[in-house]
Amino acid sequence: MLQGVKNFFNGVFFGVGQVIPGVSAGTIAIILGFYDQLIETISHFTEDWRRHTKFIIPFLLGIAVGIVAFSSLIQYLLTYHPFATMLFFTGLIAGIIPSIYRHVKENSVLQTDQPAQSMQLKDIALVLIPIILLVVVVAHLNTDTGDIALVDVDLPVMIFIFVIGIIAAASMLIPGLSGSFVLLVVGIYTLAIDAVSSIRFLLMDFTDFDLMWDIVRVLGPLGVGVVVGVIVMARLIEKLMEKYNREAFLVVLGLLIGSIYALLMEPSLLRNELTMLIIVMGIGSCILGAIISYQLSAKKL
Predict the structure, then answer these.
(1) Counting beta carbons within 10 angstroms of the beta carbon of residue 50, is it exposed (0 to 12), middle (13 to 18) or buried (19 or more)?
(2) pTM for the complete prediction?
(3) Can you list the alpha helix ranges (DSSP code H) found in the chain?
(4) Which of 1, 3, 35 is nearest to 17 (CA)?
(5) Each residue's pLDDT tens digit, 93-108
(6) pLDDT tens digits for 25-79?
(7) What's the confidence (pLDDT) of residue 112?
(8) Are 68 and 200 in contact (CB under 8 A)?
(9) DSSP sequence for 170-188
């Protein structure tokens, strides 16, 4: 019973980590001590489904509570304080970069049994390639999808959301990356937050079938994509982290650096007119976000 309650609250924190870009749910799982159990459950569920079910059911319930409870707050902040909120997300992502780089350096020492050396040409390429991809591709995706409302979601957008769900699933299992970070970078984060936060209105009136359909069109393909991504990618990520840990985190490093550019180009960043107070609040929130993510990632990453 107590273990089930613990798994539930672990799920709540994991779910909150999914909502906030830059807060890695994988890192939260490491800090709270259930990362290995999570990967094992996903990768080897059929081998001992009774034991794994005792973990996964309360854990999934906790995730749902964490996501739904926190999405309304995020929606409010993005609506009324977009500049400070987006800079807070930027700070969260920037704050984890030193810990990722330190992990790469320490992993290099473990693999070679020699003092840490400067990055080689291959290492630089592994960092630069995702940066270039994000700068070149993501700006276009952001432009095309950033202004989509719930009522505007059509079949092509649903297919796009499904594919992004698969990618987000892989991201949320890798320490240092966030599933919502992927949604934010490609421009559908606000859409997903709107869909989740709208659930509270549906709970008040289950006969609002138009709202139900609007929510399903977003969360349906996103949820299916996440499930497919978790099932397909969990074992691959498990082996990737075992055999190519350093290389994987070099790519993560590049993704995080490139995503800062993508976030600063986000249209919602300049939704309201900037005043000196808004700018100061934005800078302060960016610094606060960086401190929070640095402290979290520095503990066990």
Answers:
(1) exposed
(2) 0.73
(3) 2-19, 25-32, 35-43, 49-80, 82-112, 121-133, 139-145, 155-173, 179-186, 189-197, 199-204, 209-243, 245-264, 276-300
(4) 35
(5) 888 888 888 888 877 5
(6) 777 787 677 888 888 888 888 888 888 898 999 999 999 899 888 888 888 888 8
(7) 45
(8) yes
(9) HHHHSTT--HHHHHHHHT-
How far, CA to CA in Å, does 35 sit from each of 7, 31, 172, 192? 12, 8, 11, 25
Between 164 and 266, residue with greater pLDDT = 164
* 154-163 pLDDT tens trace: 888 899 999 9
> For residues 293 and 24, what is the distance between their CA atoms, to the nearest angstrom?
9
Angle at 254 between CA 251 and CA 255, to 5 degrees: 90
Most distant CA atoms of the chain, gap in Å: 66
DSSP class of residue 275 equals -
- How far, in Å, are 102, 178, 206 from residue 257 at the CA level? 15, 14, 43
Geometric angle at alpha carbon 146, from 200 and 77, rounded to 5°: 45
